[in-house]
Amino acid sequence: MGSDGDVDLYWSKSITSIQSDTGEENSIQYVLSFPISDNLQRIFVLMLIIGNFLSVNNGVVFIILGVYVKNTLESQMNFLQNYYHPRAIPTILIVTGLIMIATSFLGVKAAIGGHNIEESSEAKSAAFYFFMYWATACIAAYFILTAAFICFVEIYLLWNALGHGLLAGMGKYKRDEGIKNAIDQMQINYKCCGADNFTDWYNISWIDIEYIDLNDPNMNNNAKEDEYCGKDVPFSCCRMGELRPCVDKRIEDSSFHSKYTYPTDMTLNRIGCQEAVTNFLGHYVFSGIGGFVCVCLLIWIALVVISRYLQTALTQVSIGKLPVGWLIPYAKTYNAVQN
């Protein structure tokens, strides 16, 4: 793209000065400008090819993660519809993945076209493709940054949604089969019980009154206005791995159960589902995805910078000037040439 002798001569110049036909000196200063030698050009092109190959794979991973999060949230969080919208992360991940893949193919095309420049017309064509890649890569970087931001924000949103949505869903436990199955599945999968803890079930009428033996004094005392609220929890709260039968009814009544002392002999999961689900989906899944996205963002920023240097250097070559690359021009002054 330019001889090493020309590059060495130009290295000492911090300002590009161009003598115009009008007798004025056009002095432009650039941010982090430096000459691009043939060897450096080849290195940059190779880095672009490798980086875009990785970005294609990362884009595929984005799409897979988006589908996984979508299926996980929709299957387990359908009762949180009024409190949490589970499509934010899957949508941004899938869209960002598609943009990364498309942009990476354009980057490979630009890198291959700009590998060996012999004439100014070739430099002009290569500079155009690098500019197109650089512009779309900036857009892709914005989407990647947005995806990282959403991943970490969703942890807070999920915590709040679970706090309100779980209690609301528990109130519909006895009337809605879908919500009942979803809550039972959640409590089994995440080894949790209730929203904050198992005592949340004490204040919720989750057993239909028709299944209550009102002749039992204990149950009759807890039945009011066709609603039953006892110190009982659903079977899905039972802790796995216990040898004794699960105590999920009259939990605090030690005299009612054989060889049972509350709370030392409890057979229930003590952690609430708000904490358990947030720990897994938020602190592991969302944070893990967010960390991966941040790494991809760093790679993408490097590709944006490299492509910008190649694009500006090739633009200089296409108009017959030395191959100097820069990020952005930040000052322009015009001084009359003294005779």
Automatic annotation (TrEMBL):
Keywords: Membrane, Transmembrane, Transmembrane helix
Signal peptide: none
Superkingdom of the organism of origin: Eukaryota
Predominant location: membrane
Localization terms from the record: Membrane
Topology with respect to the bilayer: Multi-pass membrane protein
Transmembrane helix found in the keyword field: yes
Pfam family, one: Tetraspanin
Transmembrane regions: 43-68, 88-108, 128-159, 284-306
GO annotation terms (biological process): visual perception
One cellular-component annotation, GO: plasma membrane
PANTHER family xrefs: TETRASPANIN (PTHR19282:SF544)
Stated name of the protein: Tetraspanin
Originating gene: AVEN_195439_1
